[in-house]
């Protein structure tokens, strides 16, 4: 019991402290239902905390460590610099094409947002497609610019 109280005092995780309190309450003779009511938790949660404690002790009461299990991947900057040199050779480069190039050249699956962010950091910008009318009427365009209407409306 003293080990549990010591772990309770040392823990910085509020959720783990609640779980340790539940175990202490159970060891003092309280029922699972009473413990759940006292800690404002579900009875199912209390039962799962007891099971976790019996298997792994106090460390098992940290159920969620949060964040990505593998951590945030770090990408080598030289990969993006090589991509920038390739882009400077010309041609159309979309983010999916950049991802394919990175996969074939470096065998790396880099997320779309990461490629976008890194290329922005290197000073590249996105150029959206603009409409180019194929059958534009130059005469009508010039007349419109001058404020002249080609049609006259009358009654």
Describe the structure.
The protein is mainly α. Among the domains are: 2-61; 77-121. The chain is 56% helix and 0% strand. The protein is built from eight helices and no strands. It has helices at residues 2-10, 14-27, 32-39, 43-56, 77-87, 95-106, 112-121, 138-146.
Counting H and I runs of at least 4 residues, what is the number of helices? 8
Query: How would you characterize the largest beta sheet?
Result: none
Helix/strand class: mainly alpha
Judging from the principal axes of the Cα atoms, what is the shape?
Answer: elongated
Report, as a whole number of angstroms, the end-to-end distance.
Answer: 99 Å
**What is the residue-averaged pLDDT?**
85
- Determine the fraction of residues in helical runs and give it as a percent range: 55-70%
Contiguous low-pLDDT stretches (5 residues minimum) are none
Run of helices and strands: HHHHHHHH
Q: Approximately what portion of the residues adopt beta-strand conformation?
A: under 5%
The radius of gyration is 32 Å
Annotation, overall tally of beta strands: 0
């Amino acid at each position: 019991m003293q080990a549990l109280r010591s772990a309770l005092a040392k823990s910085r995780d509020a959720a783990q402290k609640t779980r340790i309190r539940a175990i202490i309450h159970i060891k003092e003779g309280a029922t699972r239902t009473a413990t759940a009511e006292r800690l404002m938790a579900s009875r199912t949660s209390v039962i799962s905390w007891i099971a976790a404690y019996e298997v792994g002790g106090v460390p098992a009461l940290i159920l969620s460590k949060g964040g990505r299990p593998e951590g945030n991947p770090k990408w080598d900057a030289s990969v993006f610099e090589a991509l920038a040199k390739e882009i400077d050779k010309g041609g159309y480069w979309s983010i999916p094409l950049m991802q394919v190039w990175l996969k074939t050249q470096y065998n790396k699956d880099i997320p779309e947002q990461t490629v976008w962010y890194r290329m922005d950091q290197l000073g590249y910008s996105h150029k959206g497609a603009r409409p180019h009318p194929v059958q534009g009427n130059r005469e009508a365009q010039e007349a419109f610019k001058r404020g002249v209407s080609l049609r006259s409306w009358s009654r």
